């Protein structure tokens, strides 16, 4: 792990104490990458900018709810952005239509898959572990994460029984977790 890595957890804890400088530092650190993810999810820059604004308001107002014992700070702020984007899509009554190749590219080729994980070094590990999963397990996980599809929607989209999709996601997440743990221990 690089020595100069940004300390998301301490920064969020400072935000919880209403430290405006910490919040500004967090914004400067992540807003560009978060905007890129929001554009990818929403398909329009103006909607993405609104989503980013809403996400940072939520981050500021809920920073006291962040608990480092439950997870990483960067993952927490990206989950807020992701949920805001998915809520925006659902409120408009649609999800962005993308082909399956785009979803696979998010894990395989795109630097965005790397840029939107906890840190760049973790992104490489996540990318590696996702590539280790066979497509029937990887694809439903990516559809759920990047498109916010429910298990039912994934089953319909992939024309696969719901129970099979749930089992593949569960097994895929377990394998992903094991692979990431192995990478962290190496």
Automatic annotation (TrEMBL):
Task: Kindly state which keywords UniProt assigns to this record, in alphabetical order.
Answer: Sigma factor, Transcription, Transcription regulation
Q: Name one GO biological process term.
A: DNA-templated transcription initiation
Asked whether the UniProt record includes Kinase among its keywords, one would answer no
Using the record's annotation, list all stretches that form the RNA polymerase sigma factor 70 region 4 type domain.
125-176
Q: Which domain of life is it from?
A: Bacteria
* InterPro entries, per the entry: RNA_pol_sigma-70-like, RNA_pol_sigma-70_dom, RNA_pol_sigma70_r2, RNA_pol_sigma70_r4_t2, RNA_pol_sigma_r2, RNA_pol_sigma_r3/r4-like, WH-like_DNA-bd_sf
| A GO term, aspect molecular function | sigma factor activity
What family does this belong to?
Belongs to the sigma-70 factor family. ECF subfamily.
| Protein name, as recorded | RNA polymerase sigma-70 factor, ECF subfamily
In its UniProt entry, the species of origin is given as Halopseudomonas litoralis
